[in-house]
Amino acid sequence: MADIDIDIDAPGEVAFLMGNEAIARGALEAGIGFAASYPGTPSSEILPTIAEVAKKRGIYAEWSVNEMVAMEAAAGASLAGIRALTSMKQNGVHVITDFLGNIVMTGTVAGLVLVAVDDPSGRNSSNEQDTRPVARWLGIPLLEPGDFQEAKDMTRWLFDLSEELKTICMLRSVSKISHTRGNVLLGDMPIREMKAYYDLERIARLANPIGHQELLEKLARAKEIFELSSFNHYTGPENPELMIITCGSGWLYSREAVKILQLERRVGILKIGTLFPLPENFIEKYLTRAPKVLFVEEIDPFLEPGVKELAADLPPDSKRPVFYGKRSGHLKAYGEQEPDTVIEALASILCIDYQPGDAAYEVEADKAAENHLIPRSGTLCPGCPHKASFWVIKEALKLDNRYGFVTGDIGCYTSGLGAGGFYVVKTVHCMGGGAGIANGMGQLGRFGFSQPVIAACGDSTFYHAAIPALINGVFNKSNFVMAVLDNSATSMTGFQPHPGTGYTAMGDTTDVVKIEDICRGLGIRVEICDPFDIDDTVSKLLELMDFEPIPRVVVMRHECELIRARREEVPYMVHVNPERCIGQDCGCDRLCTRIFACTGLRWNSETGKAEIDEVVCSGCGFCADICPQGAIVKEAVRL
Amino acid sequence: MRQLQKDPLNLINVGVAGQGNVVISLLICSGLVREGYQVTFGQVYPSQQRGGTVINYIRISQEMLYSPLMPRRSADLILGMEPVETLRMIHRYGNENTLCVVNPRPIYSIDIAGGALGDYPDLEKLLSAIDSLTAKTWRVNATEEAKSLGNPIYASVILAGALIGIGALPLDEEVLKPALEKRFPQQFEANLSAFKRGIELVTAS
Fold it and tell me: Coil, strand or helix: which one is A610?
């Protein structure tokens, strides 16, 4: 939440903005009329920041059903003369590449900007991946902000650039810009007249060599403009021993590393903001000034091969620097950068002996860590309905006894891969991927495959990408069960609305598209159950797992605990009756703490009994239902 | 704007997802920005909503914007909402001059909930290790105090008060009041008393 109204007209005022808010502010300053997105951390806050002021500013903002529709809807607005933005995480960019590969050939009308936010280290993602190669692959002018101020300023400027070039432009951010905060100086908020009209003279040509030729001309023009951009700059000595060439958050880490190692007189920093096409003349001017060059950037080497390609074209008698970076192994080509990684690279190249602290302290700190630290893995929340769903699926698979398993999908319930979901999920790839994989396995009976396959997906994922896979299963008669873990929210990314919630990004009420209605429309069997009703859900799952050459659907519906908790009191007060809990002597082998492993439950090794952590427990009462001894007691709070 | 004793001043606020440390980091940051400092607030957090470690890195400067992650051994202040997580931060970022405010109330992790990967470490030994690796550590029983105020969630605001109370940040109660009111418009009074309680707990002794 920004500490100001995001559309305040106060040029020169300092705001403390999250990078994503700064991007939204940049789009508002550019006078956008349209924004569409699908939630994906670390990009999720851009759209709601715009949606919050959309009505007031006469803007339209939507959560689309997936990134493809968001991209296409934004392009629709651009083609009818309205400035438009779409934003997504790296996985979303995969989804839209077909459309991107075509819009670059046909061109745009009003400014159209794609914001792609990558997640180095994949802390909040199923993968770690760099989206920047898309710009080079398909021919999209690309900028990358080095701080929060640039996140705003670049976004604003990209709309002008897109309009001048008549092509889509891209901003690549990373989690440590988008999902962190810093000071941002606000610009003005000009009022733009907006009138949508599609010029009927404008007929999209199918992509042919002429479209490609035009694109290359646009990119050549972009390069000329980038040569003069103030987003590229050099600081440091005239002839440094080493030059860091960097972009994005790598710039902040580089600046800090140079300062800590006190290398200001020896090392220069060439910071590039316009990443594709590269401002070749600008870079060439500096490239031969240092005998050594270190590239600092997030995820893939992108700037690195670009600059090396440039060096290869230098005249034969030019001094070429020695290049260090991800290819030389001085920085890893995976995982997130930080000040320490740059410090270590510089220290190694320049043979500097650097110790961050006192050696004796280091020894003591290591000893304390070894003696007193325990791991803390992320897991599903106490009271999470997905945890209940995985529990009943586990029970049903056990009773079915044919080595069945779950093909998983993207959401909080990806945790089903681990202890939090009892390891029932065996595969996870992309949005809708679990249903697609189940389609294939559902055809393998002819090869002797007899394991039941349950494709699990969340409600938002169902709308996003699972529907085509389900239709494919009906069409080709594939044998699988789809379990829609419907917690009535896009929880992992921050509770954004979707077609099943009945309201939109701008807060308007809308018709609910019911999951069961879609499935029934396909003529297949649908069961609806509450995973907290263990017996009912297990018996329905067992029935559905019986072989049938057509998909069956079970909607496991229970509201996300965090949404419930915002609205009302806990449902139950839960406690352990120490008289009844017989601990190690019980045949359950600590079912509640060891197997169910909710963070609201603790094993007290002194008393040899389970106990509830009242600060963590959400009062869902599920553990009381599974305790074989009846030792966990739930007392209803709500009547 | 008060002159910083050290530039940048590095604060880590660490807790377990669900404890509310992001809210109070924002509170502190907005106060600092209002006073005119350049502030960076970086985060590392788990993809799930609850259970993992949430680290907030706050960099405060009068000169420039620092990066959202900190170099090793560079923490000047550590606000720890949970003892094990506090030590985890000290292990990487602590130094002999680090000041620390710690809530001694353990939260078990899923990895040890069943005793499968050992028990929660001996609390007194853990806290002594924290003492010996810092210049000074204040133990603030924030969870217990919060319960006496009616809800354990106030622990985070009590700890924010304690952090202000030890006087290591260039902020006082008056600067943070408006931020507190904006953040908790409905429960402003309750949060203000929790905040004041936090200040008392470190200044009374």
Answer: strand
Mutate to test the interface with B, among A336, A379, A595 (most CBs of B within 10 A): A379
Of the candidates A323, A290, A330, the one whose C-alpha atom is nearest the C-alpha of residue A306 is: A323
User: Which of B20, B172, B148, B161 lies closest to B81, judged by CA?
Assistant: B20
- Taking 60 as the threshold, does the pLDDT of residue B144 lie above it? yes
Give me the domain span that covers residue A513: 385-566
Which of B69, B107, B143, B156 is the best mutation test for A, with the most CBs of A within 10 A? Answer: B69
Cα separation, A529 vs A538, in Å, equals: 10
Condensed to tens digits (0 to 9), the pLDDT of residues A93-118 reads 999 999 999 999 999 999 999 999 99
How many pairs of residues across A and B have Cβ atoms under 8 Å apart?
218
Alpha helices by DSSP H, listed for A166-245, are 175-178, 209-227
Q: What is the pLDDT of residues A283-327, one digit of tens each?
A: 999 999 999 999 999 999 999 999 999 999 999 998 899 999 999
Q: For chain B, give the percent of residues with pLDDT over 90.
A: 78
SS3 A71: helix
pLDDT at site B104: 98
Length of chain B: 205
Nearest Cα neighbor of A577 from A626, A523, A624, A508 is A624
Q: Are residues A343 and A412 in the same domain?
A: no
- Report the Cα A373 to chain-centroid distance in Å: 30
On the 0-12 / 13-18 / 19+ scale of CB atoms within 10 A, A486 is buried
CA distance A378 to A376: 7
Is A339 in contact with B42 (Cβ distance < 8 A)? no
> At which of A518, A540, A566 does a domain end?
A566
Query: Is the full-model pTM beyond 0.90?
Result: yes
3-state secondary structure of A174: strand
pLDDT of residue A203: 81
Q: Are residues A472 and A556 in the same domain?
A: yes
CB atoms within 10 A of CB A5: 12
Q: In angstroms, rounded to a whole number, what is the distance separating the alpha carbons of residues A228 and A221?
A: 12
Q: How many domains does chain A have?
A: 4
One domain for residues A436 and A472: yes
Least CB–CB distance from B108: residue in A183, A356, A602: A602
- Amino acid identity at B136: K
A338, B67: Cβ pair inside 8 Å?
Answer: yes
Residue with tokens 């893939």: A300
Question: What does the pLDDT look like over B21-71, one tens digit per residue?
Answer: 999 999 999 999 999 999 999 998 876 666 789 999 999 999 999 999 999
Domain check: are A336 and A417 in the same one?
no
Bridge partners of residue B102, in order along the sequence? B80, B139
Complex ipTM, two decimals? Answer: 0.96
> Is A1 part of any domain?
no
- Count of all residues that appear for chain A in the document: 639
Out of A361, A377, A613, name the one closest to residue B95 (CB).
A361
Per-residue pLDDT band at A566 (split at 50, 70, 90): confident
DSSP per-residue string spanning A150-167 = HHHHHHHHHHHHHHHHTS
Give the tokens for residue A304.
């690195």
Indicate whether A487 and A610 sit together in one domain.
no
Chain A nearest C-alpha distance from B54 (Å): 10
Q: pLDDT of B92-104, one tens digit each?
A: 999 999 999 999 9
Nearest-by-Cβ selection for A183 from B65, B71, B152: B65
Report yes or no on A365 lying in a domain. Answer: no
Within an 8 Å CB–CB cutoff, is residue A626 touching chain B? no
Question: A180 and A319: one domain?
Answer: no
CA distance B145 to B152: 8
Q: Is the dihedral of CA A88, B47, B65, A254 positive or negative?
A: negative
Question: Cα torsion at A209, A210, A214, A217 (round to 10°)?
Answer: 70
Find out whether A149 and A223 touch, Cβ atoms under 8 Å: no
